[in-house]
Amino acid sequence: MRVLVIEDERKLAAAIARGLVEEGFAVDAAYNGVNGLWKATSEPYDAILLDIMLPGLSGYEVLKRLRAADVWTPVLMLTAKDGEYDEADALDLGADDYLSKPFSYVVLVAHLRALLRRGAPARPAVLAAGDLTLDPARRLCHRAGEEITLTAREFALLEFLLRHADEVVSKSDILTHVWDEHYDGDTNIVEVYVGYLRRKIDTPYGRRTIETLRGAGYRLLGTGADAAGAGAAGADAGD
After folding, report:
1. Domain that includes residue 166, residue range
2. Mean pLDDT, to the nearest integer, of 42-50?
């Protein structure tokens, strides 16, 4: 098994490499994001250990570019101690697992072996409704072949709606899954963000993909969503 270690702390990288070699792994190392990305995209590896804080390119950017290049090698992200946001961001960008520093070598090897047993994941499906597509792994949205720039919250909302295409989802469902179950702010935030989405994915293209059903919630049209002005009776696109 061949492993790439991308870690700028050379002593740590060397210690990890020595231990993995003793375990029977073949190990390559890179000490910055630029070289790590080059190696990861030009050579075949069974797994990649990737630090977040790297010179040149951050681990986040390396991971993002790997997935954008259709490199689906399993990635074990090395995050800061108690960095729960680091961990969440790493998983959102396509990491397969994470390990917080400082970590024991025994735990590192256990995570790595578990990752290798699972193997390279299949490329995540691209979500679509007519000519509207959303690629969760690459964090890309397109309509009619044009890329649409979304904020992180807009992207999360659209992903939730697409995963429940043709279903009516309530405002509380959206708040729970797109914000969080403990959100206690103004519930009108949902209408605000639906409005943001419509102005980006519908209005410029003459579409009505997202319906508002008074007293019930919202529905994204998964079938027939290409039709200009599509919308069910009782839907109010102005909400």
Report:
1. 127-220
2. 91
Whether residues 111 and 194 share a domain: the answer is: no
One domain, residues 26 and 84: yes
Structure confidence at residue 85 (pLDDT): 56
Joined tokens for residue 150: 């979304």
Residue 161 predicted with pLDDT over 70: yes
Cβ contacts of 92 within 8 Å, gap of 6 or more: none
pLDDT digits (tens, 9 = 90+) for 213-236: 988 999 999 864 444 444 433 344
Q: For position 81, what pLDDT does the model report?
A: 54
CA distance 172 to 181: 9
The verdict on residue 188 lying in a domain is yes
185 and 112: one domain?
no
**Residues 233, 161: Cα–Cα separation, whole Å:** 19
The 10 Å CB-count burial string (b at 16+, else e) for 113-151 is eebbeeeeeeeeeebebbebbbbbbbbbbbbeeeebebe
CATH code for the domain of 200: 1.10.10.10
Q: Contact at 8 Å (CB) between 42 and 57?
A: no
Of the residues 118, 150, 170, which one is the last residue of a structural domain?
118
Angstrom distances, CA of residue 79 to CA of 28, 83, 130: 20, 6, 38
The pTM score is 0.58
- Bigger pLDDT: 131 or 21? 131
Order across the sheet with 2-6: list the strands: 26-30, 2-6, 47-51, 75-79, 97-100
